[in-house]
Amino acid sequence: MPRMHAIELLPDEAGAEVVRRDWQALRDAGLPSQLDHRGPTNTPHVTVLAAPALRAEDEQVAARVLGPLLPRSVRAAGLALLGGNRVTVVRLLDVDDDLVRAVLDVRAEVPDPQHLGWLPHATLARRVPRADVPAVLDVLGHADASISLAGLRRWDPDAGAVRDL
Q1: Distance in angstroms (rounded) separating the CA atoms of residues 155 and 29
Q2: What radius of gyration do the chain's Cα atoms show?
Q3: Can you give 107-145 as a three-state secondary structure string?
Q4: Which end of the chain is more exposed for a tag (fewer CB within 10 A), N or C?
C-alpha cells in the first residue's frame, strides 16, 4: 500500500496542547498514544485529505480556499473508534459549515482521495487493542475544549517532510 500524501490543518500552540494532553494521559496510563510515534513530523493536526499523490495545483487550491478561513475555532468534543481488531482513537471536532464546505471543495479537486467525505478529528492513538477501549474511555473522559485551527501544511511521505502552505 503506498504511503499517503496529505493536506492538514494545524492547531495553534494552545490547541496543540489540548491534543498533547490527551496523548500524555494515554501514555501515563500505559496505553497506546500518538506520543509513541517518534517521527519528527508527528504533531497534532486535522487531515483535510490523503491521497497517493498530490499535485502543485492541489496545494494551491487548498491554500486559496482554506487559508482565508484561518484561524477558525472548533470544538474538540466526543471520541470515536475507527478500525477493526485494533482501533484508532480520535477526538471528533465540531466544525462550522463554512469550513466543511471549503474542505469538501478542496477534496473535490484532488484525484483519488483515500476516503469519501470528511470526518474532522484529531488522532489520539493507533492500533489500540479492543480490550483496552474501556481504559481509554476512562482516561480521556474530560470536558470539551475549544481549539483554534490556525495553519495549513502538506505532508510528503516520500521526502519525509512537511511544508506550510
Answers
A1: 30
A2: 16
A3: HHHCCCCCCCCCCCEEEEEEEEEHHHHHHHHHHCCCCCE
A4: N
Residue 24: predicted pLDDT: 97
Q: What is the mean pLDDT of the chain?
A: 94
Q: How far apart are CA 93 and CA 122, in angstroms?
A: 7
Distance CA 95, CA 51 (A): 22
Residue 75 near residue 144, CB atoms below 8 Å = yes
| E-state strands within the chain | 5-11, 46-51, 72-83, 86-94, 121-129, 145-156, 161-164
Tens digits of residue pLDDT in 76-100: 989 999 998 899 999 999 999 999 9
Cα pseudo-dihedral 107, 149, 65, 93, rounded to 10:
40
CA distances from 35 to 13, 58, 100, 108 (A): 16, 30, 28, 32
Neighbours of 122 (CB within 10 A): 24
Three cell numbers, residue 105? 471543495
Rounded to whole angstroms, the Cα distance separating 154 from 157 reads 10
